[in-house]
């Protein structure tokens, strides 16, 4: 019989399962001994725990990226799930031990996301934008479909960048249907490229960190530079309105200068892209938090939502459940 | 042959048409003589002009709400259309002279909007919310389908309140399709009621002003009080979660306390309602401004968009026009 | 000989007395063992301490709300009083063991406060306001005279809500004497009702928490809803100026929208109520802090006073003591 | 029969009375001719008006500080009273023509204010503070009892500085009665000196301007320097706690650093002084504005109250009038 | 005898001289007639004036960019110099009439600035930065040495961009001497390029306006794109640290994100560049304002210095003049 | 062979050297035992460490200000250097044990700094400023040349106040050379006195704390009071422009009111002083941080630089090292 997964245990239940060591930090306890601060992960989510009185051998053995057999008790600490570790050992050769099998990933396959995004590219009927988008998607294809959209917060999982992009495109499609004043190709092109700079700003899908380039340039200027390079390659005039409009879409997409956009949206489509970006990111964060919350309770505080915690109503309010 | 309408004249063209006097202010010029600061309106929009050296008879004659025959020249002042008045007289009995025929109104008929909103009410399957919504729509039906959504800014036209509500419902419908975590009945009920307090905050569809109640209570607390009264009437328990959730949807819909919400959104649906409200309002404002702007120019500064002006691109960027 | 009380021990002195367990939190120490983070309370104030190496029996025994015999040493940690626990046991049957005898409460008896507030109600000569105030005081009488005014910060003790209200009324009386432009009945009615919503926003006088209603509606909208319900009951017209003015007094009393008032004060009396509310709350907080501070020192940082700490001068500055 | 006074005319009524020219500005109209922008004053208040087509002789004749006979019509412009001037000439020798008879002044005589303030000085039982206060009151006696408290906003009339100080002392007396933790002598000493620097910051009671010293040092540092000089004169040690506490009272009285206090209040008494200062100033501003407003209307926007306008209720709310 | 120049006339003096029409705006006076709002310029500075009752011929004749003979009287309006125009005609063929002879320009010749900047380029010993700087200086040489540094505010004159750049380089040189921790080549390279994007953001040295590219991209992203293009051309790796550091210098030079930098300075040299940029710009603005102010007075409010006005002391404070 | 110094050990290296106990805090570990939180200092810098299971004798022995022999291992905790203590004992009589030999101090000798500052005083040719500066330098000479410039942050070492002042004077000298509009004597006088109040605001060069006077008055008002006292002593008129200008220089030097300046700079020289103060302080903080950072890394977050961390490039960018 297959193990239960990390997030399916109840508080107080005994756990016993295979999991990936996602993060490992060696710390010194107040009694002077070393211990390990661990994060375990499988496809159902992640949970943290402490391994006390770690020997040098333990520290050598339990490194990030390895698969382990974990025994312990499911607890809660300040609204977040925790495990009180009772036993821990490395996976045997006859147990599942491929790290890739234990990583949270987007709810769609990369190939499906790619297909859907390619469908949208067909709708970018302006040839300048179409070619720049295709050039850059091709150049960064592998990273774009595997990177997360962020280190923490929303879409911080494998494939999160493409999944977030696709969600915005679906919202954009609805908005274009409803408001005829919007230039659909411009909105779609901007949406596809808006976060592409994250493939250089972040280190990758595992143990994601900011790169030096990410810290010193930021993903907005990174992708802006990529567009300039693409234009150089494709022999597009940097001063043509087509190029200027597309660069503006990316530069302005954080909406406010204090959030890192060097210019505020001055095109209808740039303002819409900014708002849809925020809408998708915040629904994703709130949904993730509410799903981890018990009915009738407020969940954990969300840093990226100004520290607010969200309430999960007690019972289905309508015919169906409040959180389907 | 029918007259051209106000907004169809080119800059520099001679105008000659029937129009409604929307606003009339008597002022004193620097030379000590009185003049009239006028706003003319017909179904195509509105335009302002000055009537110099107004006699007491002129002041008596040209009152807000009357229909006039206007002759003059179409000009522009700081990006806004203006008319330099050459002639002005009241409409004759054989000319169109019904004020109602010259008012800007929503692009849908009230009966159509009502029908579509009623369709959504059916989808509010929670009976507490459904009955409160129906009670309040019935109580304020006439005003709800004729009032503007604001004094200035977005949807400041007859029927604007219902039209804005309906636009949000359409966006909400798309979002509900895309994100299964959202409780649709709660979002729909909140969306329908969120601005209903404006039927008391504002004075009506013509020469709209803030009422004393509007200034001292604000539309958020006004509609909150209406919900409480409805519950009293319908014998619903004010302390039940259903009622508390619905009140929260309305109280939180401005998103930030500094924008007048006494509490910030703490429900997924309340945050989404806030963002969709903002999305629809800003698309409406930007579209109106861009339509009045010449290609290759930045339009007027929009106070409610932090004073930004928006650019209208020079030419169709794609196969079709940028602003269809 | 009676025990000394909690706050009467000097730093370094051996303590031995009966006290109430106000809060109990079970935590895990860095050595992996459980301990109890305790707050002790008696009528002189409260003090915290840690009970190390707690057994399951200890955890079961020492629950919040029980009276204990505490032995230990009085210490100080970052400006706050602490006890280093040497011994702890439950009260015997022949020792004082009624929790109610160990709770901090307002410096006046509830019956005295009620009498004084009733005197003020007589001065509310406007019959609409008078009847609403009496209706709501009667409806929430018990809670109003026992609840604290806050979870932390100022007046966080049994009866604090009524005591704070009474203090504001006394200030209001002085101000009314000095400035004849103030409508005394309106100011008094607003003052009595301004924080009444806390009887629903908070859970009660013991282990005070925010209720779900408190988090989702806030005490301002709660009492506003109560006034609407009272009007419905008393058959008062919600649109009459009398009702609108009274609702405004409550809605505006936080002064700024970012502090949760949906409208800013637009009546002289509303602005005065806001300032007197702040004046009483801050004097109470500063007085409590200064009393706990040694002469010549700055006390603890007060979160609700922007993190400032206050200085207690070295010696009586005048003929009498600086802090009488 | 005596003339009516400036503020006793109804809107639309013909005016004919003696008044002081408080401010005179020569401007050029859009037709290229000069006109005078005038403010008239008598003991009832002030009103503005324009004198069109001013000749060189008019400009020479109508200078600030002269008494004139004014004829015209009482009007209103954006909520402020105005006069449309029909006739204007200098006062004859047999008409009232002493400027001092037409100046708005405090509602108490200077000698009465001085007597009441001296009474409070007796209650400053700390001899250091008592002697500094008496030294500085004596040094600046004449200016202190004649200067306004501000150029605009609150207490901008002759004697306003002393009257504002006295009002705060009365509030302080009530607060001292109610809260025993307050050191009364310190609060009184701080209250008397807090705005004394205005006798150097401002130019005087007529045509009040900021001096260069006022602009470069501000009244807070000016009075702080005066206290230091007084200590030098009286041989008080600048490093003694008594002196430091008193200086803190003055330095901190604006409450926030962004309002010009180099330090925030860190004494209970300093915080209370700040709040009472604000309370008296705002009641004075609101009362003045509401008295000029018609029942059922919102008055002029008050710059120093964040641009808010205040509502004057329609009718006496209680047995007596809303604004007595 | 040569004419006096614009800024050498005293207030009240009759003016009679040749000048350039820098800006011309046609407006309608309150009496319904057209007038011209003019700005005159010569090498001493600029002054504004109004030409009343302009005929169609006047409007056609007096266009921006033409040289005129101006007669009138020197006046002051709200602290700014003005001329009351008595006579105005176009320059005759035998009078000076070359616009270029009447333009304010930098106090150094373009060739001298170029020589000094080239000297600094030699000190950029890092070959990557050196070659990028030389590439871009060569590409935009003509504009760089003729454009102003801004539309208004500081260095808004011909050659202002290069002069401002050179001033920063001189400050940078002093700082490099004093603090050995600074990487001089990086600071110099960043300083030379930091505002180079203004050659595309602004329209040119005459009647300077923001271009569409300037509004939609901003000069920071424009020059960042130019660096990327240069690297493409020069075959430099965009991901090399040398390129990333240089791009960071430019991106971060506004210091705060709300001022348009997409990233805040994270290199010592980037922070220093930001501060030196601000130091030079503010000294230039204050100096210009103080020179126009009479001793003992405060000058005009400087928008870019938060609306502050600056004081010009009454007399030489030391052995020499306060403003040399 | 001489010991290595504190900051010259590599991470992981065994340490064994003499050092000063700079700070000692007794704390209670989570296991209930006491430990010492220690900061060690020598002329190379400072490092922290924990001494576990401290006995009463240990606590008595290891007091701040004593010199000890320290053995342990050099580690890193959150980017800051730490030592894991293996052995600790007091210095023997035959070992170095003078605390003064282990203190970080300015990179110049006090006598050299004094000489250089005196050179600048000669350039203050205005006799009023010259005499005030000399009077106050003489009065506070000893403290001025030994105090730090701050408790934390920049120049927090012995002699830091004078060294920071001298650095600003060197910058000021460069600026005066470059911009002739600046009144050098005024700038120099302001620079010398601007932070002099710190000799009263702070407790001294060892274990620096804020004094009560520092907390209640702040160094800006303290030095302002010192200038007033000096003028009293020197019989200078407080109302003369010379005195007012000098006081303004000091009062305004924090630039913004929210940073504690009661007035903003309104003199060119005051604004320049503010900017040079900030420039020197920030270069010092960044340099100190970068020197502690490994190449290719970001250093610790600097609280006084808005929490930013700064990057140390990987390799010398130019011919010479990036950080010389």
From TrEMBL, chains A, B, C, D, E, F:
Instruction: Write out the GO MF terms.
Output: exonuclease activity
Q: Where is the HD domain?
A: 161-282
| CDD domains the record matches | HDc (cd00077), YhaM_OBF_like (cd04492)
Q: Which SUPFAM superfamilies match?
A: HD-domain/PDEase-like (SSF109604)
The residue range of the signal peptide is none
The record's keywords, sorted A to Z, are: Exonuclease, Hydrolase, Nuclease
Keyword Protein transport tagged? no
In the UniProt record, does the keyword Transmembrane helix occur? no
Gene Ontology terms describing biological process? rRNA 3'-end processing
The record's listing under InterPro entries reads:
HD/PDEase_dom (IPR003607), HD_domain (IPR006674), NA-bd_OB-fold (IPR012340), YhaM_exoribonuc/phosphodiest (IPR050798)
Pfam families under this entry? HD
What protein does this entry describe? HD domain-containing protein
* Organism for this UniProt entry: Secundilactobacillus folii
| Species classification | Bacteria, Bacillati, Bacillota, Bacilli, Lactobacillales
């Amino acid at each position: 019989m297959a193990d239960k997964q990390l997030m399916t245990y109840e508080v107080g239940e005994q756990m016993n399962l295979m999991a990936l060591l996602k993060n490992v930090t060696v710390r010194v306890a107040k009694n002077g001994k070393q211990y390990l601060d661990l994060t375990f992960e499988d496809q159902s989510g992640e949970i943290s725990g402490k391994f006390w009185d770690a020997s040098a051998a333990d520290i050598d053995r339990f490194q990030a990226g390895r698969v382990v057999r974990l025994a312990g008790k499911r607890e809660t600490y300040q609204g977040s799930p925790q495990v009180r570790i009772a036993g821990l050992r490395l996976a045997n050769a006859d147990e599942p031990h491929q790290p890739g099998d234990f990583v949270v990933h987007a709810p769609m396959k990369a190939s499906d996301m790619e297909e859907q995004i390619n469908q949208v590219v067909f709708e970018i009927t302006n040839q300048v934008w179409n070619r720049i988008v295709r050039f850059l998607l091709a150049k960064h294809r592998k990273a774009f479909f595997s990177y997360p959209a962020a280190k923490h917060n929303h879409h911080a999982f494998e494939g999160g960048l493409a999944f977030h992009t696709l969600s915005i495109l679906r919202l954009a499609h609805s908005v274009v249907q409803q408001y005829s004043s919007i230039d659909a190709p411009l909105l779609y092109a901007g949406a596809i490229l808006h976060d592409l700079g994250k493939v250089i700003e972040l280190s990758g899908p595992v143990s994601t960190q900011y790169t030096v380039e990410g810290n010193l340039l930021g993903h907005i200027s990174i992708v802006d530079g990529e567009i300039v390079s693409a234009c150089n390659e494709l022999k597009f005039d940097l001063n043509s309105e087509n190029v200027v409009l597309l660069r503006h879409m990316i530069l302005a997409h954080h909406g406010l200068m204090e959030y890192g956009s060097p210019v505020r949206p001055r095109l209808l489509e740039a303002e819409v892209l900014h708002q849809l970006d925020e809408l998708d990111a915040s629904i994703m964060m709130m949904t993730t938090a509410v799903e981890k919350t018990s009915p009738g309770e407020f969940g954990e505080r969300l840093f990226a939502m100004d520290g607010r915690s969200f309430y999960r109503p007690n019972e289905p309010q309508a015919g169906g459940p409040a959180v389907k």
